[in-house]
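From the pipeline queue, job 12 of 40. The input is one protein chain; the requested action is below.

Action: predict structure.
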Amino acid sequence: MRISNIWMRGRLNVAAAGWAILPLCVLVAAGPSKSSCAPLRAQAARAAQHERQLLDSARELLNQKDYAAAARLYQQILQGDPSSFEALSNLGVADAGMGKYVDAARAYQHALRLQPKSFPVLLNLGLCYFKAGDFKSAANYLARAVSIQTDSFQARSLLAMSYYSQKEFVPASRQFEKLIAVEPDNTTVQYLLAESYLWSGQEQHLLDFFGRVLERSPNSVTVHMLMGEAEDSLGRTGEAIKEFQAAVALAPKQPNVHFGLGYLYWEQRRYDRAAVEFRREIEAGGSVAKSQAYLGDIALRGGNRGQARAFLREAEQSYSKYWLTHYDLGVLATKDKEYDEAKAEFQQAIGIDPDRAEAHYRLAEVLRAQGKTAMAEKELKKVAQIQEGTRQKLLQEISGTAPSAAPN
């Protein structure tokens, strides 16, 4: 199991990243059409002047962030001139400012029909979909924006995050690489690039990249931790431990450092050393609940049920959504022949992490003890399916080919 599945996973908050809707620049209004009819020319001139006055007023309201009033003026303008690019574009800005992303997207789409290669509109539309959580649509428009203005850090950042948020980690990593080329010391981008490498099976890319980073910044705790994670993913637990030991030496009070090292010791069944690190993690105030869960697991493995139960209940009170806590509580309840309680705990563990074959197997044992044979068989079939999936994935990694479909 990767350490990232336990302590590293996170998502950028869009607002915290500093991305916001960009109001369009002032566009040059088209002049009135030539005509041989003087009264019509005068009327058109007056209409154009009135529209320009309304646009100026709406733009001022937009700059003052009075989005509702600005939207009303833009709608008024569009009633007289449905093809006003500035009104359509900035109506999208006003709607987005009020959180009306569906309405904003509609306005931007109309504007794009008039100017399909408008970078500001493509960027704003992509950001609009991003904020609405439609990352696939966001990526579509942001990719178009980046193709027009390749040096826009904001557009490329949003494109990278759109892929990342869809769990499309390979294309995300390609975009983060280009961002790093511009800002090599941007720690946020470094972290997201590392996660993208790890979750797409590009561990060697991560090691190569952060090896270069460590040459410039040998005292980076985060980089040592990320390299430790990559080594662990490659099955090189000994090298992973060295990286986390380096991180601990640099920042013994930093949250998650001791937990990562403790987990690696636990993985090697060096439970005494793991327990020391988990206790230090609790003292540092980092991954407290998960450290308590692993201390409970270690106590359970050592046959100390009372201590195990105490740690696991503390872990459950601190954070109730960790699978190991419920799994081990289920094991304790099974040992005490409290089968209803055990079933509930295993079901909670499976609800949190459905791919845990051991939880399905333990639940099957409990169901069989309750005489619910058919339900037990269903759980055992799930165990077989998970194990087959794991086997196929391993074969794919070894051979570099996609797994073949199972025969009917």
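Job complete. The first helix runs from residue 38 to 63.
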